[in-house]
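Escalation from tier 1.

The customer reports that the assembly of four entities below gives different C-alpha cells on two consecutive runs. Tier 1 could not reproduce it. I'm attaching the input and our single run for tier 2 to review.
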Amino acid sequence: MFSIPVLAGCRTHPRRRIPPSQSQTAFHLTSGVDVTGIRMTYNCGEEIYGDGECADMVYRIISGSVRCFNIRYDGRRQIEYFYFPGDILGLEARTVHHSSAEAICDKTSIVAIWRSTLEEIIATDVRASQYVLRLVGQEWQNSRYHALLLGRKHAAERMAGFLLEMVRLQAAISTVTLPMCRSDIADYLGLTIETVSRTLTQFERDGIIAMPSSRLIRLLNMDVLRSLSA
Amino acid sequence: MFSIPVLAGCRTHPRRRIPPSQSQTAFHLTSGVDVTGIRMTYNCGEEIYGDGECADMVYRIISGSVRCFNIRYDGRRQIEYFYFPGDILGLEARTVHHSSAEAICDKTSIVAIWRSTLEEIIATDVRASQYVLRLVGQEWQNSRYHALLLGRKHAAERMAGFLLEMVRLQAAISTVTLPMCRSDIADYLGLTIETVSRTLTQFERDGIIAMPSSRLIRLLNMDVLRSLSA
DNA sequence: CGTTGAGTTGAGGGATATCAAGCTGCGTGG
DNA sequence: CCACGCAGCTTGATATCCCTCAACTCAACG
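Tier 1 run:
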C-alpha cells in the first residue's frame, strides 16, 4: 500500500488461494468508507498469511485472536504482536509479507479486502489516508515499545508489561482471559515457557495476581505490576 | 501528524525553544514539494528533542548522525534507531515524543519544519501523503526487525546483524565507519559494552572482520556475518 | 482408565552481566 | 618532546539470570 501504485502487486511471490464458498461482508474502514470484503473463518493454528507471500490482502478481525510472528532458520520464533477483534492486520510497507499470521482460537473470523482496493481509496480519500497513517503509526509505536521490553527488561518486568497490555487491549479492569498458550506468551516476551510459568507462579505467591485457571488471571495489585513494567 | 487535525498541537507538554540566529534552509519532502525549514547544528550529546516533549517539529538530517532512544527509571537505556544524513526523524503517532533524540557527532546539522505544516501538506497532496505513509511503514518494519533481533538472537548474531545494517545504511561495500561509541552499540543491541567488545574481538580472531581502529571495521567474511544474522 | 497436550516444578548448565583492572589514543600543558 | 590525565575501549574473574533437560501434575477426552 505504500508502494507506488504502478509497482503494486507482485508476480515473484506466491499468492494465497482464497477458500471458496466464503461469504461477502462489509469492511468498515472509516466513517463513510465501507468496502465489500470476503469473510473467512480459521481454526486454532491455521495460517492467515505466511512470511514471503504476496501481501495483496488486508484483514480485519471480527472475532477470535491472531498471532503475528517471525520464525528463524533454527525454529526460534518471535511473536510480533497479538491482534484482537476490531484490529487490522496484513498491512505491509512492501508488497511482500515479512511475517506470518495464524489464528490463536478456533472460529477466528475475519474480513479481507484487496490491498489494491485500499490503495485506490487512500489515493483519493484524505480521511481514509489519514486513518491508515494513524494505524501504521500506532503499529510502529507498539513495535518500539516491544523492542524496549525485549532489550532492557527482566523476565518479571516483561511479564508485568504483558499482563497490563492484555488488560488494556481487552478493555478490562483487572481480569484477563488469555486467548494464547504459554508458548505464545514466551515467544512474544523473548522467554521460554518455563520462565513464563515460573514468573506467573511467583507473582501468584507474592499476591500480585490470582490464577483460577492457567488462562484466567486476576490482577490483584496493579501498582506493583505498573512499577515493575515502569 | 496522525492525529485528527483539530486535536493537533498540545498545551500540556513543554515545547522546545528554537535557538535564535538559525538560518532558513529548504526541506525537500518529495518531488515538487519543498518547505522552508530552520537549519540547526548540534554537538555530540546535545539533545534534539526529549521524551515527553511536544512533537511539533519534524527533522531531516543534513550531516552527522543521531541516536533515538528510551531511558527507564533506573537508567537502563534502549536505543531504538540510528539516523543518518537524508533520514527523517521526529515523526510521532501522537502529539508527544515517546523517545529522545541526540546528536552522536559534533556538527550534526539538521533542517526542521513544523509538524502542522507537514500535516497541512499531507492533507492536500496525495503524493506527499503516500511518501509519509511509506516512511512510517519503513520505520515500523525497522522496529519489527529490531524486536526480532532483541528477542531471539544471541550476542554474536545481534552484532553481525548490526554490522550488516551499518554497511547497508552507509551504502558501503565492506568497510564501516562507526559514528557511535561502544555504549551506543550496546544499548542498541540490548547488550553491555563489555559483551560488544568481546564479540568484536572474537570476530577479529576468527578472521570475520578487521579493526584498524575501534571505530573502523572492515568486513572480511560477509557470508559468515550473513549466516549469523540469518 | 489410558492417552494426550498443556502447564508446572526442579536440578544443573551456559550465556551474558557485573565488577575490577589495565590498555590505548589523544589532547593538554609543562 | 614528553608526562599527564582522561575517556573510550579491552580483558579477566566471578556472579546471576534465564535456558535446557527432565520429570511430574492436571484436565480433557475417548
